[in-house]
Amino acid sequence: MKFKLKLLAALILGTLSLPGHSRVYEYTIKDIYGVEKSVSADSAKLNTTEKIQLSLISGLDRKIRVTVKKGDANVYSTTTESVKVADRIKSSSDEEFYGKVITMPPLSEGLYTITSEILNTQDALIDSTTQSFLIDTSGPTADNMRIDQRPGYDMVLTGNLWELGLGAEAKLYVTVKNVKATAGFDKATIQILNPDNTVYSKMDMVYDSGSASLSVPWTKGSAVKADWMPVSNADTEYRFRVTLYDKAGTRKVLPDQKFLFDSDLGEYTLVAVYDPTAETSVIPGFSKGYVEYKSGMTVNLNPITFVYRVPSTNRREYRKGGLAFGNIISEANGYSYVSVTTPYQTLSVIHNGYQWGGPVLPTILKWVQMRR
């Protein structure tokens, strides 16, 4: 029995001592943001300016000679002591193996090759493996945000402040072109920032490798806003912020783009109906002829003239994002009084800023009974 145990132990030690090959299993770094992380040798893209720790796999009773080159220049080399049973390494992925951990000094940006050589106890070469790794701390680059489409409707698509709206049938996009990343492009996000710098929303941008460009729609088409865009009456200054990420973990923030967005009609209230027989008026500047609107009321004329009260700041005459419909017949206390004349059972459209048309005013059938 003792003989069998000794034989088994000898076989195990003999197996563990077979030459095999050496290689880098993973790199452990502190990245440029101060975060410690492990990077697999398969990925081997590092964003660090500090020391680099290598976890090397090897058989027992073998030394490991490591040589690092940048191009043809040797930048680092070392030879470890023999790997012993105590040199059991547990990786970041919880795998265990025999080997050595060495620490290299900080290296500059660029592509490197690392050769791991197994030496026996007499320093004779048994096997070698060459791998590569990249150090890139510069991160991805790209052109500034832009809008290539020209939807019209008085939108402003260049300069310090964009003025955006719902347009018409076409989907409208924010784009970023000329995306480059030495370590390989990973992803990009776009945020909308409120005036107080809080984040209103965040979206992933779509990357097209063929054109090296990014895009994200701000409308769904058919004059409908994208879900991530705010509800606004072009009266709040937001900012787009695009962040690019590469496969080394480095991120780059493009310059913010300020914008106004009009997706909301704002305030407008139906307040009166024209009645030539009325001896009084509820509209400032008129002594008679306008009666208070009431749901289901009876009117005396066809076509019918309705009057809406609209904040003057929400009229196209005073602000590009304002409403355009009817005619202003009176102004008082910061409001414009707008008349709309329409035949019975005919619809009238409100024209909102930066878009084709707009919603339909409620039909008179909901409110009016015609006097025969």
TrEMBL record:
The DUF4165 domain extends over 21-137
Pfam families in the record, alphabetically?
Answer: Big_3_2, DUF4165
Which InterPro entries does the record cross-reference, listed alphabetically?
Answer: DUF4165, Ig-like_bact
Q: Which residues form the Ig-like domain?
A: 139-263
Keywords per UniProt? Plasmid, Signal
Signal sequence coordinates: 1-22
- What is the protein name stated in its UniProt record? DUF4165 domain-containing protein
